[in-house]
Amino acid sequence: MFAPGEALGEYKRPFIFALLVHLGVVIVLSANITLDSRPTPVQIQSEQPDIVQAVAVDESQVQAQMDEIRAAEIKRKRQQEAKQKSLDKQASDAKRQRKAEEQRLAKVKKQRKEQAQKQKQESQRLAELEKQNKKEKAQLEKIQSEARQAEDEKRRLQEEAARRKQLKEEQQLLAKEQAKRDAKQRAVSQKESLRYIALMQDKVKRNWINPLASKKGLECVVRVRLNTSGKVLLVQVVHGSGNTAFDRSVEAAVLKSSPLPLPKEPTIMEGFPELRFKFTPQ
Questions:
Q1: Global pTM?
Q2: For 207-279, CATH number?
Q3: What own/partner pairs with CB < 8 Å and gap ≥ 24 does 79-88 have?
Q4: How do residues 163-195 score in pLDDT, each as one tens digit?
């Protein structure tokens, strides 16, 4: 819409022209009144219609121009109003579009925010799931490791038990074999020992002097200690015959028989450093 100042500025020249025309008409009318008082009224009356006619023509032109001005102004105002209405409509449409766009952007922003939140939650869920999977995997590996260790320990114990059983059986077998060898050796040693004891008894009998007071059927048991060469270190009657002279004669015979014969085998020699044997003269 046009402002009053703008309309006045645009039609300033026509307005001034119309104003001048009106001023001229007023001056002419004033002059006409003055001429009526002059002595020649007939001449003035003959000229008056022309002047009035000219003034009427001028007012008509001015009025036409004013109407044109007003019509032009109204048209321009209408055009301006239409233009302004169009601009207002465009501004309203733009505002509505801008608001719609803002709403759309806000919706998109909200959707993106929600999507980002969902992605964050999904990432957290996946991270938690991965953490849980790792934990379960570690627990499973631990259980499997413990199971393998238990299996290895079970197998080790079984192998150890088998080795112990085998070792026990071998030891038992060796013990049986050793017992057989020992029994055989003891039998040999005992036989050999008896043979050397018999040799000792024979030597003592050869060196025994029968005392006059001794009786027949006497016997005694003596304990003899020898060194490794068979030398008699000690002789003692442990079970006497009841006849002192007989017992003393046996001790003397043992000492006289020194050194007594000893076996060469070390296993048989073990029982000979100190021994007991029965002495009977017969």
A1: 0.37
A2: 3.30.1150.10
A3: 80/1, 80/2, 81/1, 84/1
A4: 999 999 999 999 988 888 777 777 777 788 888
